[in-house]
Amino acid sequence: MSASARRLGEETDRAYAIQVAAGTKSAAVYGVLGWGAVTIAHYTWPFFRHQTLAFKSFLVSTSMVFGLAIGADSALLSHEAERRRSENAIRRQAALELSRRGMVPTETAIAKWRADKAQHSSANRDEMG
Q: Is 21 helix (H, G, I), strand (E, B) or coil?
């Protein structure tokens, strides 16, 4: 498995973990809000009091699913935006260093620069550790 494929797999796993954590938290918050709204409606609105327990449970679970979807999606969008910013910064640094060396910053040259940079940083970690 190549380094870029391994890095992509790790990034996918990290994005999934972020979605699960944010979705779970958001589902719990929206579930509590839905349960509170149903409870308030039950005690303040006679028409709502006569509705079935299944319908009230449906409203609470719908609010939880809504929270799950919104929370997970917004966390993933934030994560992707941050990854794009960091990737653009790395590419900008690579292009600048390659241009200083008199090389054209093509995709191949940037990939080679990135591999060299990773190799140097792992060599430095091995010397210190």
A: helix
Residue 73 near residue 18, CB atoms below 8 Å: no
Is 98 within 8 Å of 110 (Cβ atoms)?
yes
The H or E element spanning position 106 is none
Number of Cβ within a 10 Å radius of residue 34: 21
For residue 74, what are its two tokens? 């917004």
Q: Which two tokens stand for residue 109?
A: 């040259």
pTM of the full structure: 0.73
d(CA 56, CA 17): 31
Residue 63, pLDDT above cutoff 80: yes
The per-residue pLDDT for range 72-81, each reduced to its tens digit, is 999 999 999 9
Note whether 18 and 64 are within 8 A (CB): no
The answer to whether the CB of 38 falls within 8 A of the CB of 56 is yes
Local structure of residue 8 (DSSP, 8 states): H
> 10 Å Cβ neighbour count for 15?
15
User: Which amino acid, 121?
Assistant: S
The runs of H, that is alpha helices, within 45-106 are: 46-49, 53-100
